[in-house]
Please model this.
Amino acid sequence: MPQTGKPEPLPPGSTIGILGGGQLGRMLALAAARLGLKTHVYSDESESCAFYVASETTRASFRDPKELAKFARRCDAVTFEFENVPDETVRELMQHVPVAPGPEPLRIAQDRFLEKSFLQQKGLLTAPFHNVASESQAREAFTALAGPAVLKTRRLGYDGKGQRIVKTAEDAARAFAELGGVPSILEGFVEFAFETSVIAARGQDGAFAAYDPALNEHEHHILRRSTVPSGLPEKKVQEAFAMARRIAEALNYIGVLGVELFVTKDLRLLVNEIAPRVHNSGHWTLEGCAVSQFEQHIRAVAGWPLGDPARHSNAVMRNIIGAEVEDWKQLAGRAGLHLYGKRVARPGRKMGHVTTISPGE
Amino acid sequence: MPQTGKPEPLPPGSTIGILGGGQLGRMLALAAARLGLKTHVYSDESESCAFYVASETTRASFRDPKELAKFARRCDAVTFEFENVPDETVRELMQHVPVAPGPEPLRIAQDRFLEKSFLQQKGLLTAPFHNVASESQAREAFTALAGPAVLKTRRLGYDGKGQRIVKTAEDAARAFAELGGVPSILEGFVEFAFETSVIAARGQDGAFAAYDPALNEHEHHILRRSTVPSGLPEKKVQEAFAMARRIAEALNYIGVLGVELFVTKDLRLLVNEIAPRVHNSGHWTLEGCAVSQFEQHIRAVAGWPLGDPARHSNAVMRNIIGAEVEDWKQLAGRAGLHLYGKRVARPGRKMGHVTTISPGE
Model:
C-alpha cells in the first residue's frame, strides 16, 4: 500500500478486487458499483453469492500463484471480505497491486494470541488469557485464571467454532485434545452486561471515522440482532471510538474494521476481537446512514475521502439464519430486507438480514 | 402478465430480465440484488453500464427474435428501463415470459398523441394539444391554440429532443418540416409555477403506493435538481396521488411509473407526460426512503408486496451531467454520490447524481 504522501484516488471505472465471495463481498461489490467502480471477485467456492453482482469473477484456489497474479494485474486495488486469507496469498498479490487493509492487520486478526497480546501492548483491556500449547499448559492456565474459562483455537475460529467452555482444569485439558491439540488460548470468562461493537474506518490520508456503536445480541454464538443506539453513555462511546482509533493507527490500517467489545456492569470496555473487514454488526448502516460501512470500506481502499458516518435514524438489524429464509414470503413484506442469494440454507448460515429504521434522536 | 387472482411471488434466486443497459437498468439490477434476485440485462449497446452489475448479459438487437427468445427463456419476468422498446420486442418476449408493466403502458407512453388523448379521456388535465400530420395542420393547430406553442414529435423525444418552440403559424409549419415531417403534436404553452412529479407503483395484487412528489428544476430541458418536499400543499399532493392512481389503474399497470406534472399559479395540476418506468426524479428515494423506487419496481415485477414509500428524510438530488463528472475528485467527498460507470461524458449525458438528505419533517 502506498502509505506516504497524499493518496491518489482511483478514478471511476477502476477495478477493486475482492477476495472472498460471500455476503460481505457481495455488499462491497454493490457499494463499489454505486461509486462507478468495477469489482472483480475472487473466490475458491463455485457457489459464491458475490459472483452475481461483480463485473468480473475468478474461481480459483487462494494458493494458485498464477491465478492470483492474473487477478492482481486486472485490479487497481485489492481487499478481502474475510480474515482468514492465507499470508502467502497477500504476499503474492502485493507484488502486483496494493492490498488493503494489508498483511499486518491480517496477521494479528488471524491469531487470537497475537491479537490479544497486541491489544494489551497498546494499553487496551481484554479478557485475561494464556497461551495453550499442550494439555498440561491447559491445566496450568485454568489454575492461573481461577474461574470458568473458554478454550479457543488461536486460528480459524468464527461464530463459536473452535471454542469450548471449561469449568475444571481437567475440562481444559480435554477441550484442548478435542479441538485437535492445535495452538490455543484459554480466556477467563468475562461477566459482561452486554456486547457492543465499533465499526470504524481509516482512510489512506489517515482520516478516521466511526459509526455509532450497536448493541449486539447473539444466539448460539451467532449474531442475532444489532440495535443502534446501543444505550452506551456518550462518554463511553467516545472511549470506544478512541480504542478503535488506537488499533487502526497502530496497524496503519486502511479500510473498515470491526472492534467487538464487552461492556461490564461497571462500564469497563474490554476488546473481544478485531475483524479486519466490514462487519455483520454494521449492516444497519445501509439503511441508517448516508454512507454505509460497505461504501466506507471501498472509499478507503480506493483512496477516496471517507464519508460522513452520521446516522439519520435509529436502527435494528436482525439476521436471517439458516432455514428462517424459507419464510421469504413473509419476509418479502418487510422494508430493509436483504437476501444474499445463497442457494443452500444450512443451519447457522447467514442467509440475509432485515433492518428496521425509526426516526433518530 | 398474470393479472388475475393472487399473484405468486417469484422466489429468491429468480432472474429478472431488464431491457436496456443504462443507469436506470443498473440501479434496478442493484436493487434486485438486495432482494436476492438475479438480473439479466439485454442491451443493444456494447458499452452498457448496467452490464457491470448484472448476473447475466446479452448484447443483441431488440429486433432479433432468436436472441429475444433465448433471453426470455432464461428469465422469470422481464421489465424495461426505457419506454421506446419496440412493440414487436415486447410481443416476442410475451410468448415466453411475463413482461411488466406490459404493452399497453408502452403503447400509450411512446406516442404523445395517444398519451394526451388517454389522459383527457380519463378526466385528467393536460396542456391543450392538436395532432399535426402536415404543414397545413401545423398552421391550423397554431391558430386554434392562439398563443405560443411547442411542436413535439409524437414518438422518440426525450430531454428536449424532437421539440421546437413556435411563436407563429409559419414557425409551426417550419418546425414540422425541420423535425422531419413526422407525426407530431402542437401543444399550447403552459404557464406553470413549477414542475413536480409523482413516482408511484402498482403491484400485481392491485396495491398502490406513491412517494412524496419532488419539485423538479430543469436546465436545457434536462433535469437538474429534484427537491423533496416539493412545497405542494398536502391536499394537492393527495390530488396528484389520485391522478397517478387513476392512470395506473386504467392501464392495469404493474411496476413503477413517473407522472410529470405542471403546477399552475392557481395550483391546477396538468399532466405533462407519463414515464412507464423508474424516473430520474425518484432517485432521491435511494437515500430518503427505506424502500427505493428501484426496489419498489422490482418488487412489483417479481409479484412481491410493495414496500412502504414513506420517506425518513428531506432530500435534494442533483444530476451530474456531461463533463461535470470530470470533477469526480471533488464529488468523491460527498455522501449520497452515485456514478453510473459510463466511459464517455458526452454533453447532456447523465453521468451520475448526488443526493443530500437532511432530517425529515
The longest strand of chain A covers residues 192-202.
